User: Fold this.
Amino acid sequence: MNRILFSLATTIALATPAMADQALANSKNCMACHTVDKKVLGPAFKDVARKYAGQKDASAQLVIKVMKGGSGVWGTTRMPANTQVNEAEARKLVDWILSLK
Ligand code: HEC
Assistant:
């Protein structure tokens, strides 16, 4: 019984950060144009993670892109500036996106 509770607690502890970031993405309206694994208006976040895998400077650039918006990387559709996120939130979201597999 203790063992089950322990593994349950571990699962929750491990699952929570990712879920919190998904919730942040929901509350910041990112999921209006993105999903984790399907292209909608914007690219699937898993595709973003795949594209930038192993690129050390990607995260800093993506933080700026999220805040200022832009186009031309995934197509001609433009991502508007996301003025509802501050830099710390943008960094948290980008870290979450890049951690997706
Ligand atoms: C109105 C629709 C829209 C919203 C809202 C939106 N995006 Fe985007 N996003 C796009 C589009 C379109 C692109 C593709 C831009 C391009 O091709 O350069 C994109 C691209 C991206 C990329 C990849 C950028 C690159 O240069 O590879 C990331 C990361 C991203 N969005 C994160 C976010 C986050 C985080 C939020 C919420 C704060 C968000 N987006 C909100 C439409 C949106």
In short: The two ends are 32 Å apart (CA to CA). Residues 28-30, 32-34, 41-43, 48, 62, 65-66, 70-75, 77-80, 82, 85, 93-94, 97 surround heme C (CB under 6 Å).
